[in-house]
Write a structure and sequence with these properties.
binds adenosine monophosphate; globular; 13 helices; Rossmann fold; alpha+beta; binds glycine; about 30% helix; Dna Ligase, domain 1; five-stranded parallel sheet; six-stranded antiparallel sheet
């Protein structure tokens, strides 16, 4: 079978890597891909927004399955276009992708069906939003642009003054263009965060390993929000009890709500959770695999990913078992110094051949230039190690990181550190996480 993956990040490299392991795959393509993906897949540079051109490519190449990485094409209706053309695609249709495409849509759905999430109010005028903030007691609050804003649309504010500035920037100055024409203002929730990927076929679902990602640029969650500086899985903060609560209070009610609304959700439902004292609550839904969580979740998937993806597309997930590895995986992202603000690219990347064979290196912002691999983006590489213990996986990932060099290389040194401590303490008090 011929498969096409859409996207250019380390998430897509991990998808290409995992899909390629299936005996069903004879050829794998990626659009547009990157400097690492092009070693494993046939890459073509087409726009992900031109569905007609993508469909033509798929037909010309005889591709039987397309797997979508990023959210923009899904929210833009790529699945609808492919389905209308009679082509198999993995990813929800436009209506279903609204769960990520509109925060207000997602919050209203959760409110209607009693799915635990932060209390919220939504606004389509600057005056109304500012008026609402004036009535709140001073303290932390979260302001979110309704539409897609490349992962930058949510601002956690510690004071109302900050929240006013965020509302002004989104609705007044339109820093996210139309995405900020409506905003959600919501309660600040406290706790550990977790990302739970749910494969859904519109009837049944299967859970992948719960992960935790690290969004801030600097250690100890300081610095700016980024696309993600690392991840690990499984996260011990999702204990069996938390997982049960997430299934019964969030995953199942959400899938039931979608069915009742007549929405056929086929693909991955990414549940961003806050593990609060009252149990897990939804921070956000995404309509796709997360990055960098995918880089740790797929290496812990024993099952054939092509089988699972085809089961989703053909709506037979209920008859398709899933097997997960009993191990830990840690991903450290190597970024260009300065990211997520200004950074330079074009620096040669050295030492990849020194990385031990059992460590995975997924490329993001890389490209080949005159036979050399050079940096080409903010996030450059995802270095992923697996081990029987979390602390070992952390150690192996950081050892491999030391092998890889490029100018202005930046990475966080505390990926999975809190979880390692938590596990040590849990062992000390004989609590099994
Ligand atoms: P989102 O764009 O909704 O994923 O939010 C981005 C990040 O902002 C999340 O991963 C959280 O770290 C934080 N965040 C979003 N909503 C809340 C909330 N209600 N309470 C606390 N933190 C939040
Ligand atoms: N890891 C966050 C995201 O993929 O949106």
């Amino acid at each position: 079978m011929k498969i096409l993956v859409l996207g250019s990040g380390a998430r897509e490299h991990a998808l290409v890597w995992k899909l390629s392991q299936s005996p069903a795959v004879e050829e794998i393509h990626c659009i547009p891909g990157n400097g690492g993906i092009c070693q494993q897949a046939r890459c073509a540079s087409l726009s992900l927004n031109r569905f007609d051109e993508l469909i033509r490519y798929v037909r010309e190449q005889g591709i039987q399955l397309t797997v979508v990485g990023p959210e923009q094409p899904l929210v833009g209706g790529i699945a609808d276009a492919f389905q209308a053309a009679g082509l198999a695609i993995f990813g929800p249709n436009r209506r279903a992708a609204q769960l990520e495409g509109s925060k207000i849509f997602a919050k209203q759905l959760m409110a209607r069906y009693g799915i635990p999430t932060a209390h919220f109010a939504s606004f389509d005028s600057l005056e109304a939003a500012l008026g609402y903030l004036n009535q709140l007691p001073d303290g932390p609050v979260v302001v979110k642009a309704d539409g897609l804003a490349a992962g930058k649309g949510s601002v956690v504010c510690s004071t109302l003054a900050e929240a006013r500035r965020a509302v002004q920037a989104m609705m007044g100055e339109r820093i996210f263009q139309e995405a900020g024409s409506r905003v959600v203002i919501e309660e600040f929730m406290e706790g550990e965060e977790a990302s739970l990927f749910v494969l859904c076929d519109g009837k049944d679902y299967r859970l992948l390993v719960p992960a935790q990602d690290f969004k801030r640029a600097l250690d100890d969650d300081r610095g700016k929000n980024t696309g993600g500086m690392g991840a690990y899985a499984p996260t011990p903060f999702v204990t069996p009890e938390v997982l049960r609560a997430a299934r019964t209070r969030i995953v199942e009610p959400t899938l039931e709500a979608l069915q009742r609304e007549g929405i056929d959700y086929r693909g991955v439902l990414y549940c961003g959770l806050m593990l609060t004292r009252e149990g897990p609550r939804v921070v956000e839904f995404n309509c796709r695999f997360g990055d960098p969580e995918t880089q740790v979740v797929l290496p812990l998937l024993k099952s054939d990913l092509v089988d699972l993806v085809m089961a989703v597309v053909e709506q037979r997930l209920g008859a398709t078992p899933i097997a997960l590895e009993d191990a830990w995986a840690v991903c450290v992202v190597l970024a260009s110094g300065g990211y997520p603000d200004q950074y330079q690219t074009g620096f040669p990347i050295q030492g990849l051949e020194e990385v031990p064979e059992d460590v995975l290196v997924f490329h993001a912002g890389t490209r080949r230039q005159e036979g050399r691999l050079v940096t080409a983006g903010g996030r450059v590489l995802s270095v992923v190690a697996r081990a029987a213990r979390l602390s070992q996986a952390v150690e192996r990932a950081y050892q491999a990181v030391e092998n890889i060099q490029f100018q202005n290389r930046h990475f966080r040194r505390d990926i999975a550190r809190r979880a390692c401590r938590w596990l040590e303490n849990a062992a000390g008090t004989s609590r099994t996480p």
